[in-house]
Structures are given as structure tokens and as C-alpha cells.
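Quick one, probably user error.
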């Protein structure tokens, strides 16, 4: 699978071996290698969401799904490519390169969890974490002939993952008010929204940065 841009980051062999050496041999997933989509935090490594400009600050802790796998004895080997900021269903929107279906270089891998799906389908790992808002995990799984599972919302805490790219906003409607749509006002760019360690963005705007990232 070396010809496919699966990874945004691969752990050093020495780190993988060290992690494997700590595993309880009786753990249910003892020694099983797994990959992590690069919008999910893995402690000690940056979370870029396929934006190289964000590869500067390592995550202070692992996401719940990662932590549970580690506790079960699984061993991470790297972070996988994706449609940048998880905004796509084809797997081609990444400055790290576009993955393709394991069945055909002429066909897309599906996205946004392209690297995770191709890593499993191509045999790089038997298990990979992905995210799925509207098919981002199940679509690439289907395109590559593997199983993608999307657990029910709220079944796992997700504080250590990138927030979704802001594309729309909604306001609660008071039941005491009329159901007629309110008059529209001119759109406002809104204030700059900043999250520590994340890119700065204005909702609804995606100009290209010099780093190949949509801001």
C-alpha cells in the first residue's frame, strides 16, 4: 500500500514496539495494530484534520475511542489521511494526496475517512478508527469492500476530536411564535472563531491558505 497516501503520520517503529511491550497479553485485543483518522486525538501526536499547518501541537490526551482501544491492548501505528476537515465523501480533497479504491486506481476511495478505509482494505491494519456524520465512515468502507460501523450518537464521548467545519447555523424556534419564516437579513461574516490549537476561520468562508488548508 506504499503507493497510496494513507498516512498523515506514521509512528516510529520504536514507539510502536514500546507500546506493544506494555500490553497485557491477556487483554482482548492484545497486540492488534490499529490506525486513527487524523481528526481524532492520539496523545503525543498532532491532530491536523489533513491541514499541515495544524501539525504543530501534539494532543495532550487521546480521544475516548482511542483510549478504549489502548485499554483493550490494541496498538496504534499511525494517523490516516482524510478529506480535509472531514468535508467530503470522495477522498480526493487532501493536500497529503488522494486515495483511490483498492479495487481500481481509476475509482475514488470514498471519504471523508479515505485513509482509514484503504488502510484496512489494503491490509495495512486490521482495524481503523473513522468519523461518520453523513456517511464519512460507511461510504469509503463500502467503496473498498469492508465493514464500516457507525455507532448511535451519544454512545461515546467525543471531546478529543476536531469540531466539524462550520457550514450552517440554526436557531431554536419558540413554539409560541408564528411558524411563518422570519424576514431574512443580509448575511454577516460573524466574529472570528478561535479554538486553542485549531485553525482560525470565519463561518461560511473557505479561502485557500498558503499551507493548502481551507480556512
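Nope, works fine. Designed sequence:
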Amino acid at each position: 500500500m506504499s503507493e497510496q497516501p494513507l498516512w498523515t503520520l506514521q509512528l516510529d517503529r520504536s514507539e510502536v514496539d514500546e507500546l506493544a511491550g506494555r500490553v497485557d497479553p491477556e487483554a482482548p485485543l492484545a497486540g492488534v495494530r490499529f490506525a486513527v483518522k487524523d481528526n481524532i486525538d492520539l496523545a503525543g501526536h498532532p491532530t491536523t484534520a489533513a491541514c499541515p499547518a495544524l501539525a504543530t501541537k501534539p494532543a495532550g490526551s487521546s480521544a475516548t475511542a482511542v483510549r478504549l482501544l489502548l485499554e483493550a491492548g490494541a496498538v496504534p501505528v499511525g494517523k490516516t489521511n482524510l478529506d480535509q476537515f472531514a468535508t467530503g465523501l470522495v477522498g480526493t480533497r487532501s493536500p497529503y494526496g488522494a486515495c483511490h479504491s483498492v479495487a481500481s486506481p481509476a475509482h475514488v476511495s470514498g471519504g471523508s475517512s479515505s485513509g482509514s478505509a484503504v488502510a484496512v482494505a489494503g491490509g495495512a491494519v486490521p482495524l481503523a478508527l473513522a468519523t461518520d456524520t453523513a456517511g464519512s465512515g460507511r461510504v469509503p468502507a463500502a467503496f473498498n469492500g469492508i465493514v464500516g460501523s457507525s455507532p448511535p450518537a451519544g454512545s461515546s464521548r467525543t471531546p478529543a476530536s476536531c469540531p466539524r467545519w462550520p457550514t450552517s447555523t440554526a436557531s431554536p424556534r419558540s413554539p409560541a411564535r408564528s411558524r411563518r419564516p422570519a424576514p431574512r437579513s443580509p448575511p454577516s461574516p460573524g466574529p472570528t472563531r478561535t479554538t486553542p490549537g485549531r485553525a482560525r476561520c470565519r463561518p461560511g468562508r473557505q479561502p485557500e491558505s498558503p499551507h493548502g488548508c481551507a480556512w
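The first strand starts at residue 7 and ends at 10.
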